[in-house]
Structures are given as C-alpha cells and as structure tokens.
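Problem 12. The chain below contains 108 residues. Write out its predicted structure in token notation.
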Amino acid sequence: MRVESAELKARLSYYLRKLRENGEPIEVLIRDEPVAVLTSIDSRSSTRDPRETEELRELANAFSAVGLTLAPGNARRGALPELTPPATAGDGREDVVSVAALRGEKEW
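Solution.
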C-alpha cells in the first residue's frame, strides 16, 4: 500500500488499523517519492536475519563500553565501527562536565 504523507497524517489511525489487520507494509511518499516504509512489529521481528541480531548485540556492547546506548532502529548493517574510550582531560577528568569546567577556568 502506498500513501502520501499528508494523507497518512490526516488518517493515521485508519492506516495503522489496516496495517494491523492485513500486515501489508505501508510505503510513505512525499510528492510521489518513497521516503519510508511502515511495517508491523510482528513482521519485522519474524524476518530478522539471525546474523543481524548478533551484529546488533555486538554493536550495543561496543556502545555500552564507551557509555552510550544503542536505541532500537538506529543500527545499520555492515562492519562495526571501532570505538575508543573518551579522551581523558589533563587533570584526569573524563566526563562532559569537565569540558565546561575547563572552559570556565580559562581566562578569555
């Protein structure tokens, strides 16, 4: 099913009901150009490649190691990026507040 974004906005509940009833993905268009696809949660999880699940787990662990959280839907398939721990400031601080503190100490 294809629908323009303005139509989807105006009748979102209707299209979500249709999606739940028949499970057919909804292709969202802006000026006749596809920009997104809405799919049901059930169809997305049942078709996920097991390798993708393992990659997502590895990526989430890498993010966690540097203090970040991987939100669902933000991962892309492919090689995992190399992540390094945050740089340590000259006085040993590693948090974001350190930057503000160091800038505050500097005479501009």
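Discussion. The beta strands are 2-4, 26-30, 33-38. Students who got a different answer should revisit the alignment rule from Section 12.3.
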